[in-house]
Amino acid sequence: MIQYALICDEGHQVDSWFQSASAFQTLSDAGHLSCAVCGSAEVRKAVMAPRVATRQAETSQTPRSLSKTSTEEEKALQALRKHVEQNADYVGREFAAEARAMYLGAAPDRAIYGEVNRADAKALIEDGVPVAPLPFVPNRKTN
Ligand SMILES: [Zn+2]
Question: How far is the CA of 23 from the centre of ligand 1 (A)?
């Protein structure tokens, strides 16, 4: 299908669809074209590029997947988890006590991670103990 903007001698412009350029020409040559507004037979193509409708134009583009971003975030999270698990000692529920002991110099400095309840975490931060929440729930080691 081809769309032409047709214009009559009165200046009415109407968009019309034709099967093909030759179909338009045939109708035009036979005098079968007339203005949809005033009925004038003096109809010609307006000076504009025809729009060609194709199946491809109707097919909407596949929306960009959002899964890529989340996968990369997951990868970063997994890398962080691996780093923490390889470089820090899991102390579980003893985290608050261990962190405080290290902060006070009562225990040697080492990297630890574990679990702490909200009240203990608040108390640690208020006391200036350098702790940070992990963006994941640590694996509980049995040993
Ligand atoms: Zn007209």
Answer: 21
